[in-house]
Amino acid sequence: MTAQPYPPGLPIGADWVSTEDSAVVRFPYDGSVVAEAPVGSPAQARLAVDEAVAVSRAVAELPSRTRRALLLEVSTALESERRSLEELLVAETGKPLVDCRVEVARTIVTWQAAAEEVSRLHGETVPLDLLPSGDGLVGFWTRRPIGVVVGIAGFNYPLLLASHKIAPAIAAGCPVVCKPAPQTPLATLWLVHLVREAAAKLGAPAAMVQLVTGDAEVGSALVTDARVGAVSFTGSAAVGRRIARDAAPRKTLLELGSNAALVVAGDADLDAAADAVLRGGFYASGQACISVQRVLVIARVAAEFTAKLLARLGEVVVGDPRDERTRVSALIDERATARAAAWVDAAVAAGAKVLGGGGVEHGILRPTVLGDVPDGVDCWHEEIFAPVVCLRTVSDVDSAFEQVNASRYGLHASVFSRSLHTAFQALERLEVGGVVINEVPGFRSDTMPYGGVKDSGVGREGPRFAVEELTVTRMAVIRP
Fold first, then answer.
1. CA distances (Å), origin 444, targets 48, 416, 461
2. What DSSP designation does 383 have?
3. Structural domain of 413
C-alpha cells in the first residue's frame, strides 16, 4: 500500500498506541510486501481489557438510537470504501477478487442487520403466580449486555469474521476487543478505525472497540482475563478447545472447523450437483470451513456424476487472485500449501486415486479431485482448507447419511435430491448445524443462525443470534 488509511499503531483506549514490534504482511501469490503491521504484546492486550472495562457502563448505557446509528454509519463507511477494501483483502489474504467482493458485500449486510437487531432487544413478563408464593408479584425479564467481549477472527475472511464479532457486540451494548489473525490484520485495522470514527461522530467512547494484534500469548492474555464476559472465536478446533478451557467459566462462542459433505442421491440433478461441487469446493481457494470436501455419491449415478464433474474441472481458473476470472490461487502461506499437498500424497499412498487436477505449480495447489478415498486419511477425516475434493461411492442414501455423521465435525452438509422425503430425512438425521438442499453447503446468509455441533463448535452467529449470545437475562420480581 502506498498509504494506510488509518493511524499508525494499535487502537487501544481513546488513542492509537505504538508497538515495539512490527511484521511484514506479504501478498501470498508472489510474496511481495503489502505493508508493515504493528504487533502487539500481552501487556497491551491487558491494557485493552482495562480500557474496555472502564467504558463498559458507558457503552451499556448508550441509547438504542445511538447504537443503531453507529452501526448504520459503519455500513455506510464500508460502502464508500468498498473497492479499496476489496483490493486490500486480495493483497493480504491472496483470495481471488471475486471472493473478496463477496466478503465486502456480506460485511455491509452484516452491519445493517446488526443495526436492525438493536430494536429487537426486549424481554417478557412471567406469570409468577403459578404457585401461591407468587400471588401479587409482578415478574418480567430484560436482556442486559454480557460485558467485555473478546473477538478472535481467522485469516480467510478477516473483514467479515471481525464484523460478526464487533457489530453484534455493539448492538448488545458491549465493548469489544478484537484480535485478527497474524497473517491478515490490515482490513480489520481499517474496520476498527471506521468504527471508532463513527463512535466519535455520535459521542460514544472510542474504547468501545479496540484491536490488538500478536501471537498466541496475546490471545491468551485476552481470553484468560477474568473481567471478560464472553469470548467469540473463529478458527481451528484445536485452538478452540484450548480457548474454551482457558476462558472457563466465562462464555465462549466457538466457530470451528469442518469437513463439509455433499450427498448426491440417485434422483439428483447431476448437472446441478456437479456445478455445486465446482462452485462449493474451490471458492476462496478452498479456504472456507464450509467448502465442499467430502462428496458421497449413490452408486448407480456415480460414474455419470464423476464424468460430468471432471469434464468441467478445467473451468476452474487458476492464477493471479487480482484477475476477475481466477477462482483458485495461492493459499495463505507456503506451510499451508505443503501441508495440503502432503495430505493428498498420503491419501494416494493409502489407495486414493487422483481423478483430476492435482500437483503444485508455481506455488499453487491446483484444484484436485480424489476418488476412492479410504478411511484413516486426513483428507477424509480432517479439514484440509485447500482446493481438494474427495469422492466416495455409497450404496444408498442411508449409507451416505451415516458416513456424513461419522465425523467429529458437524457444521454444514448438503443433499442433492428431487425427493421431499430425502430432503426431510436429511433435516431429521444429519448431525450438523445447517442442512442445505440442492445448493452448496457453503451457502450462508449472514442473517441466519450459523454454527455447528460436535467439534465444529458451540453457539450461533448471525446478528440476531449473536446478540442473544452476548446478552444475559435479568429477572425483575416486584411486589407492588
1. 32, 17, 11
2. -
3. 261-445
